[in-house]
Specification:
The chain is of the alpha+beta class. It contains eight helices and eight strands. This is Helix-turn-helix domain-containing protein.
Length: 213
């Protein structure tokens, strides 16, 4: 973690000219607590305080600042470290991974395995491992294995991991759809051996994605 109250000063720099109440509205945190974080102490008790990973997630969204970078600056991440997945998990067989504040959920054909974690130290190397296996970050807490997608229902934002009716699916955010639209279509075609057809809405989404990237 950055020494002394440097992290608090960094948060204040991130806020810039934005008012505390504006940040409170964007993050769901109280403006008084945000100011306490900037000062590095609780002004009522004078105790030193440190934001939780969940608080940092909310601030990263409010400031549009990378979540993992905030975690690193706050001391929750280390650059050079390794991550061990549960023994029964093979990442290349996993459909998608969901991150909670203190848990990691692995979803695959074999079911769901949830791992409780005490901290997010070594998180960075784990993300790199996911990327190497062609997982794509769909939002702040969801990584999807592009090699396992069998159907993409773009009008509903659903990714299916088998082609039969009532197959397991996960829903992705609209921004992720726009960013990965063509990639998802290509992955479905590659994974199933069947070329996907795009309609007018699909072409419109693809155009919006290009404009936003």
């Amino acid at each position: 973690m950055e020494q002394g109250n440097q992290f608090g000063k960094f948060l204040e720099t991130l806020r810039g000219k934005m008012s505390l109440r504006k940040v409170a509205s964007k993050s769901g945190l109280s403006h008084a607590y945000i100011r306490d974080l900037e000062l590095g102490r609780n002004r009522t008790t004078n105790d030193i305080i440190k934001p939780s990973p969940d608080t940092l997630r909310k601030l990263s969204q409010a400031y549009q600042y990378p979540y993992t970078d905030l975690l690193m600056k706050a001391g929750y991440l280390e650059e050079a470290s390794s991550w061990q997945t549960p023994n029964e998990i093979r990442l290349d067989n996993v459909w998608y991974v969901e991150f909670g504040t203190k848990s990691i959920k692995y979803v695959s054909q074999d079911g769901i395995v949830e791992e409780n974690v005490e901290s997010l130290v070594a998180f960075t190397s784990f993300i790199e491992a996911l990327m190497d296996l062609q997982f794509a970050k769909m939002d702040m807490h969801l990584f999807v294995n592009l090699n396992k997608i069998k159907k993409y229902a773009h009008s509903e934002g659903k990714l299916y991991f088998d082609s039969y009716e009532d197959a397991h699916y996960v829903t992705i955010a609209a921004m992720a759809q726009m960013k990965y639209h063509q990639t998802l279509l290509d992955c479905v075609a590659r994974n199933t051996g069947v070329a996907t057809q795009t309609d007018g809405d699909s072409r419109h989404l693809s155009l919006k994605a290009k404009l936003l990237t």
